[in-house]
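Lay summary. Proteins are chains of building blocks that fold into shapes, and those shapes determine what they do. In this project we predict the shape from the chain. Here is one chain we studied, written as its sequence of building blocks.
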Amino acid sequence: MKLVMYQMLDCPFCKHFKRIFYRDVPDGEEVILDGHGDQGWIEHGLDFVPTVIAYDDDGKEISRLSAVKLVGIRKNKWIGWLKGLNNWSNTNVFTL
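And here is the predicted shape, written in a compact code that computers can read:
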């Protein structure tokens, strides 16, 4: 399983969340969107950034956690989502 964070460089919510993301998922990946015209918004069905998508080993989307407009991703939502991924995989993929 891999986690990918979609973000924009000028997004304050992304800057804040990036520290949390890499603290909890040091081998996570990121995709930087180049403005609102970037095709990544459509390709990945993104509404807001940051958005984190979990992919299985075949590249299929398992789950996603999207930011809330003008809020970002709250720590309690993030922790709950990671715990849910651990339950789904029946392993402790993420140590919290």
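What the prediction tells us: The chain has three helices and four strands.
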